[in-house]
UniProtKB/TrEMBL annotation:
<feature type="binding site">
    <location>
        <position position="88"/>
    </location>
    <ligand>
        <name>substrate</name>
    </ligand>
</feature>
<dbReference type="GO" id="GO:0004553">
    <property type="term" value="F:hydrolase activity, hydrolyzing O-glycosyl compounds"/>
</dbReference>
<feature type="binding site">
    <location>
        <position position="281"/>
    </location>
    <ligand>
        <name>substrate</name>
    </ligand>
</feature>
<comment type="similarity">
    <text>Belongs to the glycosyl hydrolase family 6.</text>
</comment>
<dbReference type="Pfam" id="PF01341">
    <property type="entry name" value="Glyco_hydro_6"/>
</dbReference>
<feature type="binding site">
    <location>
        <position position="309"/>
    </location>
    <ligand>
        <name>substrate</name>
    </ligand>
</feature>
<dbReference type="InterPro" id="IPR016288">
    <property type="entry name" value="Beta_cellobiohydrolase"/>
</dbReference>
<feature type="active site" description="Proton donor">
    <location>
        <position position="163"/>
    </location>
</feature>
<dbReference type="InterPro" id="IPR036434">
    <property type="entry name" value="Beta_cellobiohydrolase_sf"/>
</dbReference>
<feature type="binding site">
    <location>
        <position position="209"/>
    </location>
    <ligand>
        <name>substrate</name>
    </ligand>
</feature>
<feature type="binding site">
    <location>
        <position position="313"/>
    </location>
    <ligand>
        <name>substrate</name>
    </ligand>
</feature>
<dbReference type="GO" id="GO:0030245">
    <property type="term" value="P:cellulose catabolic process"/>
</dbReference>
<keyword id="KW-0119">Carbohydrate metabolism</keyword>
<protein>
    <recommendedName>
        <fullName>Glucanase</fullName>
        <ecNumber>3.2.1.-</ecNumber>
    </recommendedName>
</protein>
<keyword id="KW-0326">Glycosidase</keyword>
<feature type="signal peptide">
    <location>
        <begin position="1"/>
        <end position="26"/>
    </location>
</feature>
<keyword id="KW-0732">Signal</keyword>
Amino acid sequence: MKRRYVLLTAGALVAAGIAAPVAISASEKKSPAPAPSTEAWDGRLTGQGLYVDPNGAAADQVRAWEAAGRTRDAAIMRRIADRPTATWFADESTGYAARARQLVTDAGRAGKLPVLTLYHIPNRDCSGHSAGGAASAVAYRQWVGALATAIRGHRSVVVLEPDAVAQTVRGCLNAKAATERFGLLLHAVTVLRANPGTLVYVDAGNPTWIRKPAQMAAALRRAGIQRASGFALNVANFERTADNVRYGTALSRQLGGTHFVVDTSRNGNGPAKVGAGDRHWCNPPGRKLGEAPTTRTGHTLVDAYLWVKRPGESDGACSAGAPPAGQWWPEYALALAS
């Protein structure tokens, strides 16, 4: 099943803008924030606490509705605001390295792990709702390098490039561009994993997209899965957790026991059965929040259930009233949380 992911926009409603590839500022170098040691960490995600961003869009909405007297709606919105969600880095707005550093610093001070989603691969989303990405391979390497430098010395979880592998398997790119993409993913995994505190999970689509685990496994090997911490499933999708676990277990067998994480942010009612095409994945009605984020899943191979997709951010302007991909949509968030 073809599906696309969100494109986050800059600003207060998205707690994770990205800047053009730039070095950490001189002031940051002179006064680095204290970083928690990674030396004693065994590199396992299972059992770790996840960071809740107190300034995310859902938290802002809670405060706005409380101030307006919408106390019941604010209480419902807390079902999103009070849970850990990923912070997406998806464009080149100024200050991305500093924001990444601030995120991991704040999480470290809280004794929790932040989840970062990197979503800036060239030719991203194959001209879909979230089209964009870095202008060139060189620009992408610089961008990843700046982020890796920003989070170095801190502990974090990175979900790497939703869509990138699955779309390539489905023939989104020509042979030359596909080879370049796999090389960029391998580079990103290698650079990020050079920091002993960074866990990297390469996106592997969902059970209904690339249905043959052997086919996905071959692509993941080209993308550097052997150097990663594992793979990620169901990012921004709605497939049921049990289906993802079955598929992930089969895929893990193809990869020698590789672990994985599952995005459960919006799969509480499973996939939509409305019409055809985009409405299966793009703001489908009648969906609800899935299992709360946790690193204690009860499955040996499943390191965590994560909310990688931030509930309440639009999948695209694909239905009446829906804003562009990545923009906060309080009405849809409230429906998910209700």
